[in-house]
Structure formats: C-alpha cells, structure tokens
C-alpha cells in the first residue's frame, strides 16, 4: 500500500484564505489516498475554515492551537505546526510529514514524489519574492540523491545551517518517536521549535533536530533539477488584501 502523506497547514482568516485553501485542497484531492490534511488555526476554529474543509473531499483534521494566547508576535505558524506535530506524535501517525503553508503553490508531482522519501527529503523551491535581494531558489544542490550544497543568498548564509524553505522538505514521522532508529541528533522533543521567534532560522533549527547532516538527506528527485513548488511572499509586503469594511467573522469550537 502507498505511504500515508500527512500535510500540515497553519491557516488564519483573511480575505484570501478561501482562495488559498481551495487551491491547496484541490491539488491534495488529486493525490491517491492515503492522505491526511492537518489544518491548524490559532486560539479558535473558524466557521470559514470548517466549511472549506468539510466540502473539500479530502481526509482532514481541523486542530486548534490554544497554548499561546499571550503571544502577540506574528510567528508565521510556528505554534500551529507544533500543535500538529504533537498530534502526530500522540497518535503515532505513521507517514511522511510535509509542512504546506496555505498560500504557496504545489504540483501534484511533488506530493507524489514525497512517498518515496525514506527518512528526510529536500528539494529546491522557487521563491516568488518582490525584493531583488532575495534568492530565486532555495534548497539543495544534488548529485543524484546526494545533497552536496545549497542555493542561498547573502542575508541568510551566515545564520543558517541548512538552506531549506519551510515548504522544501518532508520527513518520515517515525523520526519523532524513534530517534535511535534514525540516529536523530538530539533526544529533546521536536517541540523546541517553539523557542525560535522569527525569520531565517526557523526552518534550519527544526531540521537540525531531525537530521545530523546532509548525508542523512535525500535530494528529490535525483539531481534536484526540478522546481515542484513555489513560495509566494505577497501579503507581508502589502496591506492590499484586507477584508472589505464591515466584513464579519464568527468563531466556534470544533
Ligand atoms: N499563518 C497563520 N497565522 C499568522 C500568520 C501566518 O496561521 O498570523 C500561516 C499562514 O496561513 C501560512 C503560514 O502560517 O500557512 C506562513 O505564513 P506566511 O505565508 O505569512 O509566512 P511567509 O510566507 O512570509 O513565511
């Protein structure tokens, strides 16, 4: 049987949310099961998100991250991803885990290829940013499936060990509860991700808890010569996607 694919998506209500979640849900629908879409909101589940999930035709779990009521920082979904990881650990969901932000664009090919990952897979991501200082590509340079280097940029080069975008890697969930089998670098719980506040180090500090070095990674596909997903940076740079005045949102509990 095919490996379970566990897609983790932090999300929140904003004018483009329905557009984003539908776009992502529709590519997930094209994938052969088994697939589980874990969608996580902060503080409360919204009716908007529930409705979209219910009608998507994809197996899903709608979770709420409520352990961080005081956090005013915009953490780009860190706590929500941790909620999903806790859920995967608690229920020992055995599959390939992928962090898919709601606003990025993913090909079916990417999702299909993830099933071949044994331990930790990584690939280059197309970075669609308006800033000229940002890399066009982030992720591995490979010789076959071996990772031999990284596409990077001046700004992130000094602070990152691994130059991977959040949407540029996936891993076997058994790494979370079976560190010995996988020679995981630390026995500390992965939830340490919480301590990282913002910016470039988020991904690398997570990855450093799962693999020791490039030798434990698999470049996907061999040669890493394909772009299979794109990371958009639109909202953070513009305030133009706000709800129209008077728009109302309701909260409810799942
Ligand atoms: N996100 C969220 N709450 C927030 C900010 C972001 O749930 O307050 C989610 C967002 O929906 C996306 C992910 O976290 O799935 C990454 O957010 P964003 O795209 O803003 O980060 P960037 O692309 O700038 O890294």
How are the elements arranged and paired?
Elements: E1 5-10, H1 17-30, E2 35-42, E3 45-46, H2 47-54, E4 60-65, H3 78-90, E5 96-99, E6 105-106, H4 108-114, E7 120-122, E8 125-128, E9 137-143, E10 146-151, H5 154-157, E11 169-172, H6 179-182, H7 201-207, E12 218-219, E13 229-232, E14 251-252
Helix pairs in contact: 1-2
The chain binds uridine-5'-diphosphate.
Keywords: Cell wall biogenesis/degradation, Glycoprotein, Glycosyltransferase, Golgi apparatus, Manganese, Membrane, Metal-binding, Signal-anchor, Transferase, Transmembrane, Transmembrane helix
Subcellular location: Golgi apparatus membrane
Binding site for Mn(2+): 103
Features:
254 residues; seven-stranded mixed β-sheet; five-stranded mixed β-sheet; 24% strand; binds uridine-5'-diphosphate; cell wall biogenesis/degradation; metal-binding; transferase
Number of strands: 14
User: What is the structural class?
Assistant: alpha/beta
Largest sheet: 7 strands, mixed
- Unreliable sequence segments: none
Average of the residue pLDDT scores: 86
Fraction of residues in H or I helices: 10-25%
Strand numbers in spatial order across the main sheet? 4-2-1-5-11-7-12
Total number of helices: 7
Sequence of secondary-structure elements: EHEEHEHEEHEEEEHEHHEEE
Shape field: globular
* Ligands, ions, cofactors: uridine-5'-diphosphate
CA(first)-CA(last) distance: 31 Å
Strand fraction: 15-25%
Radius of gyration: 18 Å
Keywords: Cell wall biogenesis/degradation, Glycoprotein, Glycosyltransferase, Golgi apparatus, Manganese, Membrane, Metal-binding, Signal-anchor, Transferase, Transmembrane, Transmembrane helix
Enzyme class: transferase
Subcellular location: Golgi apparatus membrane
Site (Interaction with galactose moiety of substrate glycoprotein): 138
């Amino acid at each position: 049987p095919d490996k379970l694919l566990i897609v983790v998506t932090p999300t929140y209500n904003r004018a483009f949310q329905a557009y984003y979640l539908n776009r992502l849900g529709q590519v997930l629908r094209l994938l052969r099961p088994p697939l589980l879409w874990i969608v996580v909101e902060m503080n409360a589940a919204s009716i908007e998100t529930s409705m979209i999930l219910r009608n998507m035709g994809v197996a899903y779990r709608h979770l709420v991250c409520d352990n961080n009521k005081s956090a005013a920082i915009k953490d780009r979904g860190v706590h929500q991803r941790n909620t999903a990881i806790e859920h995967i650990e608690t229920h020992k969901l055995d599959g390939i885990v992928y962090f898919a932000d709601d606003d990025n664009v993913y090909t079916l090919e990417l999702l299909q290829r993830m099933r071949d990952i044994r331990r930790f897979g990584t690939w280059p991501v197309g970075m669609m940013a308006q800033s000229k200082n940002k890399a066009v590509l982030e992720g591995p340079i490979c010789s076959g499936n071996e990772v031999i280097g990284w596409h990077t940029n001046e700004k992130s080069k000094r602070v990152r060990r691994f130059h991977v975008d959040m949407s540029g890697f996936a891993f076997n969930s058994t790494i979370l509860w079976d560190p010995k089998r996988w020679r995981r670098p630390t026995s500390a719980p992965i939830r340490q991700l919480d301590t990282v506040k913002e910016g470039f180090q988020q991904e690398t500090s997570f990855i450093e808890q799962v693999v020791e070095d490039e030798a434990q990674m698999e470049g996907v596909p061999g040669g890493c010569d394909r772009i299979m997903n794109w990371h958009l940076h639109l909202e953070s740079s513009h305030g133009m996607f706000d709800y129209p005045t008077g728009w109302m949102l309701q909260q409810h509990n799942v």
